From TrEMBL:
InterPro entries: PepSY-ass_TM. The chain crosses the membrane at residues 12-33, 143-167, 188-209, 334-355. It comes from Allopusillimonas soli. Keywords: Membrane, Transmembrane, Transmembrane helix. PANTHER family: BLL7967 PROTEIN, IRON-REGULATED INNER MEMBRANE PROTEIN-RELATED. This is PepSY domain-containing protein. Pfam families: PepSY_TM. The keyword Transit peptide does not apply. It comes from the Bacteria.
Length: 376
């Protein structure tokens, strides 16, 4: 392919996606530190107790949640001991099959079953998350941002191709300050872009995968989950949900080297009407992201099935924390934030260079038109 074609590809893929990518970079910056920001903003915390204090029954915790919100039903229970130690988060809604975006969270002390709070107003962080996720446009917005991420990858590839002949007569890292502001910003744009090319590729690729999460999970529901619950296809409706504590015990015995991350209640998107689905996580930074479903019969509390997640779900689970630098604690988050700021400079300088060139072109056309008018 001719170099001029690569230049045009880089130009237009960058121009089309730049504004949206700037929004993603700006909103992504505080999201990198979401845990630290939430702690500073007064996130609910469990009181200090002796380490030997036993946990309450999950059935008792469900009763506490229903007492706090009697007009709602429990759909999910989830735990994050690293971020919220000794707290059970109970997600509720008006009915079990309510839309995914309808939820109400109640934070309950895992040991005493006392309600600690109902942290549902996240304010600034909620706005940043929704803008970063789907621009408040739901699934269409999410898929649109995925397409912008694809344009970013094309812009990166074409930029690398264009950069090689550009550097043929210059040393790497050269910034020609004496050639004027436009040349200086062009050199900075090229230098910062090539330095961050690997990071931009990783963040862009994982961002694209993350935008596909509703589709990936829908495929898993219709594929693996449907096969796991197939024996219950014609089973009669249950009178009640049985014991979630019994389901918890069965899940922990089934995978003793793992811990429960989330329990989906019967009839929710991640469980059929006859089962609790416990999603188990490992105990290393990587395996903690790779969840394993354990289906437990809600009436009998016995194991129905458990399987490894398929590769496409694992890819989604791995890409989510990698996108925000969540694997290496605060040091990696700081690196991610610095690279994010450099990416903002690269995007902003690209807009500046295009605008400067466009204005020069308009001025040239205006001078030419004036000269033609005088000649006429």
């Amino acid at each position: 392919m001719h170099l001029r074609t690569w230049v045009l590809i880089h130009k237009w893929t960058s121009l089309v996606s730049t504004i949206f990518l700037l929004v993603l970079c700006l909103t992504g910056l505080p999201l990198i530190f979401h845990e630290e920001i939430e702690q500073l903003s007064g996130e609910v915390e469990a009181p200090s107790m002796p380490a030997s204090t036993p946990n309450a029954s999950l059935d008792t915790i469900v009763e506490s949640a229903l007492a706090a919100q009697p007009k709602k039903v429990v759909r999910y229970m989830f735990w994050d001991e690293g971020e919220h130690p000794h707290i059970t988060m109970v997600s509720m809604a008006s009915k079990v099959d309510a839309p995914p975006d309808e939820f109400w969270t109640v934070a309950i002390d895992s040991r005493t079953a006392q309600v600690l709070g109902q942290p549902n107003d996240r304010g600034f962080m909620e706005v940043m998350l929704q803008l970063h996720k789907d621009l408040y446009a739901g699934l269409p917005g999410q898929l649109f941002l995925g397409f912008m991420g694809l344009l970013l990858l094309i812009a990166i590839i074409s930029g690398v191709v264009v950069y090689k002949p550009f550097m043929r007569k210059q040393d790497f890292g050269t910034v020609r300050r004496q050639k004027g502001r436009g040349i200086k910003w062009l050199d900075l744009h090229n230098l910062l872009g090539i330095v961050t090319v690997a990071w931009l590729t990783v963040v862009g690729a994982t961002g694209i995968i993350n935008t596909l999460d509703p589709i990936v999970l829908a495929v898993w529901q219709s594929d693996q989950l449907a096969d796991m619950v197939k024996p219950y296809k014609n089973a009669p409706p249950m009178k009640d949900n049985g014991s979630v504590q019994a389901a918890f015990v069965t899940a922990t015995k089934t995978a003793p080297d793992m811990t429960v991350r989330l329990i989906a209640f019967p009839g929710t998107a991640f469980a059929d009407p006859h089962h609790y689905t416990a999603f188990m996580k490992g105990n290393t930074p990587l395996t903690a992201r790779l969840l394993r479903p354990v289906l437990v019969d809600a009436q009998t509390g016995t194991l129905t099935d458990t399987r490894e997640m398929p590769w496409y779900v694992k890819s989604l689970f791995i890409s989510q924390p990698l996108h925000f630098g969540d694997y290496g604690g605060l040091p990696l988050k700081i690196v991610w934030a610095l690279l994010d700021i450099i990416a903002i400079i690269v995007l902003g300088s690209g807009v500046y260079l295009w605008g400067k060139k466009y204005l020069r072109h308009r001025e040239a056309l205006a001078v030419l038109a004036e000269a033609e008018t005088r000649e006429a």
